[in-house]
Amino acid sequence: MHTHIAIELLKTFNDEELNRFGDFVRSPFFNKREAVIKLFDLISKYSPEYTSSALKKENIYKKIFPGKKYNEQTLRSRMSELSALIKTFMIEVNFKEDIFYQKKKYTKELVKRRKFDLAERSISETDEFLKNSHQNKEISDLNFLYSKRVNVDNYISLMHAKDCNIEAMGKASEQGEFLIHNFLLEVLACNSDVICYEIETKKKFEDSYVKSFFEKFDFEGYINLLKEKNYRFYPIIAVYYYGNLAQNHPDSERYFYELKNLVYEYHNQFSKTELSNYWVMLSNSAYTNFIKYGTKFKLEGHEVNKFFIDNNLYDENNPFSVSGYQNIAVNALNVGDLDWGEEFLEKFKNNFLPELIDSRYHYCKAIFLFEKKKFEDAIENLSKVKFTDWNIKLEIRLNYLKNYYELSMSEQVFSLIDSFKHFDSNNPDIAPEYMDEKIKNTIRYISKISNAKFGGKQLDYAAYKEMEDTRNVLYKKWILEKMKELI
Question: Domain coordinates of the chain in residue numbers?
Answer without folding.
Answer: 5-97, 99-180, 387-487
